[in-house]
Design brief:
By secondary structure, this protein is mostly beta strands. The chain contains eight helices and 32 strands.
Length: 585
């Protein structure tokens, strides 16, 4: 489901919004005549009622998790947040074959097996010799070091459709249940371990941003090296290679021969359904070593195991003694596809959101002093605008007064200041999320301000939709290790529609986001089903980062969360009227 479903009103409202924007552009020049000889000045209202508080993904029964099935981005690794605690991320995924019902030829033997997991990376430069330098993207944490990654064959069957819904809707898997599935840790296939100079292997691995260079000798017609090499260059990744020339790798090759090659004609590799039932998936289990590690985001579609093999066939060359001197070769890959789910194991014992009674402790009437916004299996902030409906007519009293005002809304924004005093000393600016996302929590919908914000800049998604969703401003501009100051979220069209067009004053939600252009959403466990459950953006679910913000009840008046309304008065307003009081005249 997408946030930007926005009801069918969106198409009609869009045209009106563009008209509003053009009017605002017209009003933007100070002293421009609008009606007769009247000049308009921009005023500021910032005493409007607002209540903001937080919620985690728990209730009295325990932590319910958040949906992690349905995302194309994988998360593995270990992330230690000085404020919120630690999270270990693992991945369970179905696989597909590069070719169903394969024919491997006769007398087939495996030459090598390669496990590959490419990182997100950026090519920085390539020298005259062809050597490339990369920087890694989407790596999070300030406790780098060795961590473990074990790859298992899963024996747990992942349903694509939900049996509880009579197989009429997609199955949903949650962050807190995946690691408990029976059989996910089946046969151990690979362990990612760095090689040490003394010939032994380390306990785990350390992230490496180096280019991988593969050198393969070219062969002459007799099958002997001809003195030249074929060079393949790969971007940074986890890559494990097991070859037939290495006796230590024999067990790995034997396993994959039995698991895949010997299955030819057995019906297990006939189509995707038989593959799903026979080889039920891969489980990538991450573990910290000495409380160290990093969280890695990666494109799951690029995760694969490739089997390279040789075989004899009618084109093979046989010498006078009957020995095969030239064979056919082929390869087949198992790639991540179909149903996938991320497992989060949290240690929130010292976390401010670590209690199952946290939501009950929140003041939903007056708001809270601090707002806790944490990605992954974390928390969001909820925001109610314009106060109570004392006369019980379905509209907040302050909003009713504003609707009676004859004003033009030039800009409306929320300024969220980072509560640096509450972020633990071990934290640093590089752990603070660069972007936040605000949305209609009641309807699981994107705000109109996001839909019409086409702003882009260099650097990709991090500099997109910045008119609506401002990036984190920092103490030192441009220094991502510098402490964060604030986020400015513009809600001009949303507020305009509420005041001028009688749109519903919905509850808003604020989430961490890795990519504010992704509108796909995930269910919050325990809040309902596909149709009626509460949701958060997937871009927040895959993010390990978190922050603390000044809330609407902050004791710091300058950093207290406020709805700021910049408006133009088109007629004289009595300061003692409900409209004048609402505007703070």
């Amino acid at each position: 489901m997408r946030l930007n479903k926005m009801l069918k009103q969106a198409a009609m409202v869009m045209g009106l919004a563009l008209l509003i924007i053009s009017c605002e552009d017209d009003f933007g020049s100070i002293g421009t005549s609008i009606v007769g000889e009247v000049n308009f000045d921009t005023e500021l209202a910032q005493d409007l009622k607002i209540a903001a508080y937080s919620r985690n993904y728990a209730d009295a029964s325990g932590f319910n998790g958040v949906q992690t099935s349905g995302t194309s981005v994988g998360v593995i690794g270990f992330y230690k947040d000085p404020t919120y605690g630690s999270t270990t991320s693992s991945l369970l995924t179905q696989v597909s074959l590069s070719s169903n019902d394969p024919d491997f030829g006769d007398d087939t033997e495996i030459d090598s097996v390669v496990f590959s997991l490419p990182y997100y990376s950026t090519l920085e430069e390539t020298d005259t010799d062809g050597n490339s330098t990369y920087s890694l993207d989407s790596i999070f944490g300030n406790t780098p070091g060795q961590m473990k990654l074990s790859v298992y064959r899963s024996n747990f069957f992942l349903n694509s459709l939900d049996p509880a819904e009579d197989f009429e809707s997609s199955a949903i898997y949650y962050s807190n249940e995946v690691s408990e599935f029976q059989g996910v840790e089946g046969d151990l296939l690979f362990e990612v371990r760095d090689s040490l100079p003394n010939g032994t292997q380390a306990e785990g691995f350390v992230l490496d941003d180096s280019e991988i260079v593969l050198t393969t000798p070219n062969l002459d017609d007799a099958g002997d090296p001809d003195g030249t090499n074929e060079i393949d260059r790969l971007s940074p990744r986890i890559r494990l290679s097991y070859t037939s020339g290495n006796a230590d790798d024999a067990a790995v090759l034997d396993y994959w021969k039995q698991a895949i090659i010997d299955q030819e004609g057995q019906g297990t590799l006939l189509n995707q359904n038989t593959v799903n039932d026979y080889f039920r998936g891969l489980y990538l289990k991450a573990e910290a070593i000495d409380d160290k590690g990093s969280a890695i985001l990666f494109d799951v579609a690029n995760l694969n195991v490739t089997i390279y093999y040789s075989f004899t066939n009618e084109d093979s060359t046989i010498d006078d003694s009957g020995e095969v001197v030239s064979t056919g070769t082929g390869n087949i890959s198992l790639r991540s596809s179909g149903v996938r789910a991320i497992a989060y194991e949290n240690d929130f014992s010292q976390s401010p959101i670590g209690s199952t009674s946290f939501n009950e402790s929140q003041n939903i009437v007056d708001g809270e002093e601090n707002l806790y916004v944490k990605g992954g299996d974390g928390s969001i902030a909820l925001i109610d605008l314009f106060g109570a409906d004392e006369d019980d007519n379905g509209v907040a009293d302050q909003l009713e007064a504003l609707r009676a005002c004859n004003i033009i809304v030039n800009e409306a924004n929320l300024q969220f200041y980072v509560q640096q005093d509450e972020l633990n000393a071990g934290s640093s600016g590089e752990l603070e999320p660069e972007r936040l996302f605000i949305y209609d929590y009641d309807n699981n919908a994107t705000l109109l301000d996001a839909l019409i914000d086409n702003s882009t800049g260099e650097g990709g998604a991090v500099n997109t939709r910045t008119n609506h969703l401002g990036r984190l401003s920092r103490e030192v501009d441009g220094d991502l290790s510098s402490n964060g100051v604030s986020y400015r979220i513009r809600l001009t069209q949303h507020i305009n529609n509420i005041i001028k067009n009688d749109s519903t004053n919905v509850r808003l939600a604020l989430s961490v986001s890795q990519n504010v252009t992704i509108d796909n959403t995930a269910l919050i466990g325990g809040t309902g089903g596909v149709q009626d459950g509460q949701r958060v953006p997937f871009s927040g679910v895959i993010s390990p980062e978190g922050t603390i913000l000044h809330g609407s009840a902050s004791s710091d008046e300058e950093k207290k969360l406020k709805l700021r309304l910049y408006y133009t008065i088109t007629e004289e307003i009595d300061p003692t009227s409900p409209c004048g009081i609402a505007l703070g005249l």
